[in-house]
Amino acid sequence: MKSKYQMSVPLVCKSCQSEDIYLSEDKRFARCNQCQKEYPGGYDELVRANKLRIDAEMKKMQAKVVKDAEKKVDDMLKKAFGGGKNFRF
Ligand SMILES: [Zn+2]
């Protein structure tokens, strides 16, 4: 099952910010197709180079999860206490 909160942050070249990056099949080597910058550390190096952007996306997603959770509780309370014929104070 796919998570509703699945996140995808496009990895960009740290030199030219292009998303057009070649990644080898085993992810151990990457190269920017725009400026030809090479990433001998492959995928891991790209992730490190994009860490700030990934962190920012994580924060955004966490805020969304919290907001959704609040809304859910709100709906539940409304259902429990609002307009029910069998529930009175
Ligand atoms: Zn580049």
What does this structure look like?
By secondary structure, the chain is mostly helical. It folds into 2 domains: 11-49, no CATH class; 57-82. The chain has 2 helices and 3 strands; from the N terminus they run E-E-E-H-H. It has helices at 42-49, 51-81; strands spanning 21-23, 30-32, 38-39. It has a 3-stranded antiparallel β-sheet. A hairpin with a 6-residue loop joins strand 1 and strand 2. The radius of gyration is 22 Å and the shape is rod-shaped. The relative contact order is 0.12. The protein binds zinc ion. Zinc ion binds at residues 13, 15-16, 18, 32, 34-35, 37.
Tell me the total number of β-strands. 3
Radius of gyration: 22 Å
In total, how many domains does the architecture comprise?
2
Strand order of the largest sheet: 1-2-3
Give a quick account of the main beta sheet: strands, pairing sense, barrel closure.
Answer: 3 strands, antiparallel
Give the oligomer, counting copies of the same chain as homo and different chains as hetero.
single chain
Briefly note the structural class of the backbone. mainly alpha
Q: Beta fraction of the residues?
A: 5-15%
